[in-house]
Write a structure and sequence with these properties.
Layout (H helix, E strand, L loop, with lengths): L1 E5 L3 H18 L1 H4 L1 H11 L2 H9 L3 E7 L2 E10 L4 E8 L8 H15 L4 E7 L3 H9 L3 E11 L2 E11 L2
Length: 164
């Protein structure tokens, strides 16, 4: 059984940081390389980065499967849609409905807040994730290249799912 818990403590943020290291090193090194993964983990997924994002209005959640924390997600409120900035699940749990349950939770939150869509960005070369999002009715809206500093860019698709 999958459960969702809001992340609201130093221990939760450290758990997310540790999960990010495990998931990102496995999943993203083949896509963007070691240096960019290390840079992005520090910039976006460290405890300090998480705390800064929370101050700016982001919300983080832990995903538990059979009482073990197996992933996390974060979203923030945007004017036009709920922006899902992060959703990551340990590779051993992918394909077991964990991500689908998390997305249903996110969609219900978006509906409660009055949003008609959920948006996210995904690396253009992250084919498995793109297919998973498309299976959940997300559509590619546009291509985006964003300079994130230190000589790195995020080369992404903006994807969106209409929920109303």
């Amino acid at each position: 059984m999958t459960k969702i818990k809001i992340a609201n403590s130093e221990l939760d943020y450290k758990t997310i940081e540790n999960l990010a290291v495990t998931i990102w090193q496995e999943h993203y090194i083949p896509i963007i390389g070691v240096q960019q993964v290390e840079y992005m983990l520090n910039k976006y997924q460290s405890v300090n980065a998480i705390k800064a994002q929370l101050k700016e209005g982001a919300e983080y959640y832990l995903i538990k499967y059979q009482n073990i924390i197996v992933g996390y997600f974060s979203y923030c409120k945007k004017e036009e849609s709920l922006f899902l900035s992060k959703i990551y699940i340990l590779s051993a749990l992918r394909g077991k409905g964990v991500g689908k349950t998390a997305m249903m939770y996110i969609q219900s939150k978006a509906e409660q807040m009055g949003y008609s869509s959920i948006s996210l960005t995904v690396n253009k070369n992250n084919e498995a994730s793109i297919k998973a999002y498309e299976k959940m009715d997300f559509k590619k809206i546009k291509k985006m290249v964003v300079d994130i500093g230190n000589g790195f860019v995020m080369d992404d698709y903006l994807m969106e799912k209409c929920i109303i």
